[in-house]
Each structure stands twice: as structure tokens, then as C-alpha cells.
Design a protein that fits this description.
Oligomer: single chain
Distance between the termini: 20 Å
Number of strands: 39
Structural class: mainly beta
Strand content: 35-45%
Largest sheet: 9 strands, antiparallel
């Protein structure tokens, strides 16, 4: 679920240079300050209608597939005097036809009387020597393409016959620097501020020779031209002559443990990528971990059967590596590679910090052998959520009655795709004691719990830090490649006598999540300021086979606004979030609301306050 952070320039329809933005930068950059600069230019879309990513066509035409590898576009990007290129790794066997590309465009002023004028739009092949588009393989070109100036979808029909798996690029040629930003200067839509579906690593900022720009552009990996902080909203349509494969996997991430890396993913629904139902139940047969090279994806490790919840890899190659996974269905067809994760360390051009694993990796499992032991007081310990899907486990020892406080504070924030930390604490027997997420991306998350038990013996308590996207608080979204991924960790263990100087505990679910009893509690801040309301509920271990759960939001007049949960839940601790919108997607106003849960014979109502 996408959560929005209020930042001053989001409400200003002015151009911003792509790159780090200081937290204090509240004024729009004047047009004349960028009018003669070539290179990348970005501005947020604010409240404009945004196109949605789709995994398949809403059509019943067999074999017709649309490749749309981006999340919800939230910004507009141009590369003045240069190229933006979008890569498509086509896995299809036999002969098939590229039938078109589609993309949204606009101008800065969004004047419907003026069209967005691209110098050219091309379809290029791939150069295995450089890993970039090859201008000598020009399959299509149209000069001075006039697109929508108001965010409308442009469709370019094509008829390019291709044989077997290949790599193609949709390449957009932007006008050269001129005096000012012309009314017709074009921008593409991009998914950059939140990347809730993860990074696909398909987009390149290149010069007009289709090589890496000098100087290199912000948001790219050095020497590659690859943009690692966004996904351009460009789709390609393909007509297959044989049965379409299944949809790509999603939610791909990597967690590093001392003995191995573990890659996790979400299997697609049992539907083919053209919208047709799969011929058989459980149609996905196997999975293959892959690593990107200049010539495309190469298999890494053995094929993994389905069902399987993760792919282990004993040795991760050194250096910066881009990883993905594809599926093989029971017809022997390969799916697309979905979102990616990246291992290794690198600088990122123009970023406020580099990327890479922190000094405590690999600490990706919650036991005292693999987690990192901390000796309180810990203050500003540098850490990172890297690679995408990383889980940082730490542990401390505490006596019964001691108060444990842990805080993850994002660093080097730039208001774009910032770390949205979640902190959880587990008892020594693995029971979840408390979960706390940040109020919005870039803000800290702090959790406080009291060590349970009797006597005076020390016990280990686990602390888990992760990014919200793909976590228990937001499992529908994918692990994100965070640029930058850094945070500082604070941990303290205090006796009750010294607790008074710090004030009372602010962990709403602390002590309420008894695994043997039904429970329902606020799992986040209340009142809710500018974020979302989060609830935790427990189905006791005595429940076998699951129980029917309904979680609804009502206004003060008892009117039903929306339903958050309506299904069956198994024993355990669960979370649900409310974004402050009704069932039609409309944001409700500030005020008092009620969350009511019904789980079997158990019911409870909580009071929720939304404030500006």
C-alpha cells in the first residue's frame, strides 16, 4: 500500500533537476536556472491522473500480451538533448510480432493546445558488448513524434516480427537545449517516488549515440547509464503465435544469511499473461534464479520446483550484481523476469550516499547464532536495508521487567523512495511482542517493550528492522531498491527505575499480543497524522483451520466506509492498514472513526482519530 509523505515541492508543478534534494528545499527551482542545461529533468505529478501498471491486457485475445514493468507513475522525466531507453527482455520462443508501444507523456504546462514533441522514437536491438541499445539495429524509427501534452496515453502501432528470446529497447530522443522550457518540450511518466512494485532496472539515461552520457546522469550506476531509482512508464505489446506463458513473479527480494543468500518471491495467479485461464491448476512448474550480464539473463544455481517459498544460493559473486527470477510453466514456456534486487556495493551518481551491505551483514535470521548481538547503549549505529528484501536481525539480553527500546532512523533522505522502517521485537521463544512502523517514509520507527517472565535470569530478545514495503505491515508491495538504503540504529535496555525520565511506553501493541488469546489493538500511532492507521489482531493458537475475520471502518454516524479484511485467518498475529480512504478510494476528512473486528465469536471496536 502506497503511503504519501507531505513534502513542500510535491504541490508545486515546477521542474526539478533530478538528483538529491535537500530537506530544506521548499521553493520551486526557477525555469531560467535550468533552461540551458541538458540532461535529466524531473518533476512530481502531484494530483494529476496517473496511469496504472498492468501485468496483462484486459482482453480475451489469445496470445496478446502487454509488458508493463512499472508501478504507479508519480513523476515526469526528460533527458534534454539525449536519450531515455526502456529495455524489454522478451523470453518467448518461436516467431512472434511486436505490435506496439504505449506511454503517457505531457509538457510542463500541460496545455492541450500544444503537443509534446519528441525528436524521435525508435525501437533498437541490443549490443552484447556494451549491454546497451545498438543504433545499428534500428527496427523502427519515427521522427518528430507528437504526443499528448496532458498525460494521455500514446500508442505507436508496430509490426516487427521477432524470432526467439531477444532484448529490445524503446528509445526516446529529446530535443536539444533551447532557451527556456518550450511549451512543446516532452516528458515521460515515471514511477519514482515510491516504486511500490520494486525496481525493474530496465531504464537508461544515454546520450544521442546510445552510449553512457558524460557527465553521467543522477540516479545511474557509474559506467552503465542504468537508472536504479525509478521505472519509466512505457509498455510493449506482443502477439504470440503459440500459447502465452504465465505472468511474471513479483515481490522478489534477497535476504543475506551467514551460510547463504535467500531469494524470496510471490507466485502469480494461475492465469496466463494474455488473460486466458491456465490450462491446469498450479500451472507453474519450476523457477530459475538469474543474474544479469551484458548479453542478458544467465541461470544461477539449480532449477527450483514449485511449491517452494525461497531460492537459496550458497555463494554470491563479488561486485555489483542484478538478480531476478523467472518461472517455467507446465508447457515449458518461460515467464518474464519481474522486479529485481541488487547485491554488492556502489556509488550512485548524484545520490546522497552510496549503496551496499552494512558491516553487520549477513544477519538475516532471528537466532543468536546468525543475528548481531548488541551491547546497549547503542547510538547511531550505521546500518542499511540492502539488498531489496534485506532483514536486519539484532539481539540484546534483558532481565524480566527491563524496558527495551529500539529505534531505526533513516539517514541521507531525499524525499524520494526513502526508507520506511518497521521495527519488531520478539521474545526469546520467538513470539512477536511489538511492531511499530514509521509515520511516513523517511521518519524513524521506535518500539518499546517490557521484558516478560519471572525471576532474574537474562534472556535474549530479537529486534528486526526492515523496510515497510514487502513487510508484514505491507505484504502486497514489493521489496524496494532504496537509494539510499541507510539508517541509524539506537537500542537501549533500562530498568523500570530509570524509565521515568524517558516517559511512558508508546508501543501500542506492546504486551497485548498474547498468542493464546484473541486480541485487537492499534499497531501504530493514534492520532494518525499524515500517514495510515495500522491495526494488529491475534487469532489464538487454539484455533485450528482458521476463523472468519471481518475488519471494517465506520464513521461517527455508524456508516460503513470500507472493509479492510473479509476472509479467513489462521492462528497467529496479523496486521491490516487503513489509508484514510473510503471504499471508493476517496480520502475522508479529519475526525473520529471506528475500526471494528469480528473474528468468530470475538468482536471489538477501536477509536481512530485522523488529524491533518
Amino acid at each position: 500500500m502506497t503511503r504519501f509523505k507531505l513534502i513542500p515541492w510535491l504541490a508545486i508543478p515546477a521542474l526539478l533537476l533530478l538528483g538529491p534534494v535537500a530537506p530544506t528545499a521548499t521553493a520551486a527551482i526557477p525555469q531560467e536556472s535550468i533552461q540551458d542545461q541538458d540532461g535529466l529533468i524531473f518533476f512530481p505529478l502531484d494530483d494529476m491522473a496517473r496511469t496504472e501498471s498492468v501485468s496483462r491486457l484486459a482482453t480475451s485475445v489469445a496470445g496478446q500480451v502487454t509488458i508493463s514493468q512499472f508501478g504507479n507513475p508519480d513523476g515526469a522525466l526528460a533527458n534534454r538533448g539525449r536519450f531515455l531507453a526502456v529495455r524489454f527482455d522478451l523470453p518467448y520462443a518461436g516467431s512472434y510480432t511486436i505490435t506496439g508501444i504505449s506511454f503517457a507523456s505531457r509538457t510542463q504546462s500541460a496545455n492541450p493546445a500544444k503537443l509534446a514533441s519528441f525528436r524521435s522514437v525508435r525501437i533498437l536491438g541490443h549490443d552484447c558488448n556494451t549491454g546497451l541499445p545498438d543504433k545499428s539495429q534500428t527496427l523502427y524509427r519515427t521522427n518528430r513524434y507528437l504526443g499528448s501534452s496532458t498525460g494521455g496515453i500514446n500508442n505507436i502501432p508496430l509490426s516487427i516480427v521477432v524470432n526467439n528470446p531477444t532484448i529490445l529497447y524503446a528509445v526516446f530522443d529529446f530535443p536539444a537545449p533551447t532557451s527556456g522550457i518550450a511549451d512543446t518540450f516532452p516528458f515521460l511518466f515515471t514511477d519514482r517516488l515510491f516504486t511500490e512494485k520494486g525496481l525493474y532496472a530496465n531504464d537508461f539515461a544515454l546520450d544521442s549515440s546510445a552510449v553512457v552520457t558524460v557527465p553521467e546522469q543522477p540516479g545511474t550506476l557509474p559506467g552503465t547509464g542504468l537508472l536504479v531509482d525509478q521505472n519509466l512508464a512505457v509498455s510493449m505489446s506482443v502477439q504470440l503465435t503459440s500459447q502465452a506463458p504465465m505472468n511474471e513473479l513479483s515481490g522478489f527480494g534477497c535476504n543475506l544469511r551467514p551460510a547463504q543468500a535467500e531469494f524470496t518471491y510471490t507466485l502469480p495467479a494461475n492465469v496466463l499473461s494474455d488473460g486466458e485461464p491456465a490450462p491446469k491448476d498450479n500451472y507453474m512448474r519450476s523457477l530459475q534464479l538469474v543474474r544479469r550480464t551484458n548479453c542478458g539473463w544467465v541461470a544461477q544455481g539449480p532449477i527450483v520446483g514449485v511449491p517452494s517459498d525461497r531460492i537459496p544460493l550458497l555463494t554470491v559473486p563479488p561486485g555489483l550484481q542484478i538478480w531476478g527470477v523467472y518461472g517455467v510453466d507446465k508447457n515449458g514456456d518461460n515467464t518474464l523476469v519481474g522486479n529485481v534486487t541488487i547485491t554488492g556495493a556502489s556509488s550512485v551518481i548524484g545520490a546522497t550516499a552510496g549503496v551496499g551491505e552494512d558491516a553487520d551483514e549477513a544477519n538475516g535470521n532471528g537466532n543468536v547464532t546468525e543475528a548481531t548481538q548488541l551491547i546497549p547503549i547503542v547510538s547511531d549505529r550505521p546500518e542499511s536495508i540492502w539488498p531489496a528484501g534485506d532483514q536486519d536481525y539484532f539481539f540484546v539480553y534483558a532481565h524480566p521487567g527491563d524496558v527495551i527500546t529500539a529505534s531505526a532512523k533513516p539517514t541521507n533522505i531525499d524525499f524520494r523512495n526513502d526508507l520506511d522502517p518497521v521495527v519488531q521485537v520478539f521474545s526469546n521463544n520467538g513470539d512477536l511482542m511489538a511492531t511499530e512502523g514509521a509515520s511516513s517514509p523517511g521518519n524513524p520507527a521506535t518500539v518499546t517493550v517490557t521484558a516478560a517472565g519471572n525471576g532474574n535470569g537474562l534472556k535474549a530478545y530479537m529486534i528486526l528492522v526492515s523496510d515497510r514495503s514487502g513487510s508484514v505491515l505491507d505484504p502486497a508491495d514489493a521489496p524496494r531498491v532504496l537509494i539510499p538504503p541507510t539508517y541509524n540504529l539506537d537500542v537501549d535496555v533500562e530498568t523500570p527505575a530509570s524509565l521515568s525520565k524517558f516517559g511512558p511506553s508508546e508501543a501500542p501493541v506492546s504486551g497485548l499480543l498474547n498468542p493464546d488469546q484473541f486480541a485487537f489493538a492499534n499497531a501504530g500511532a493514534n492520532p494518525v497524522r499524515g500517514g495510515i492507521a495500522t491495526f494488529g489482531y491475534v487469532i489464538p493458537r487454539s484455533v485450528t483451520g482458521g476463523v472468519s475475520v471481518k475488519l471494517r471502518i465506520y464513521d461517527v454516524h455508524g456508516r460503513l466506509l470500507t472493509t479492510l479484511v473479509n476472509g479467513t485467518a489462521k492462528a497467529g498475529t496479523h496486521f491490516a492498514s487503513w489509508s484514510g480512504r473510503d471504499g471508493n478510494g476517496n480520502r475522508v476528512g479529519p475526525g473520529a472513526y471506528f475500526a471494528r473486528i469480528e473474528a468468530g465469536s470475538f468482536s471489538r471496536t477501536l477509536h481512530v482519530d485522523l488529524v491533518n
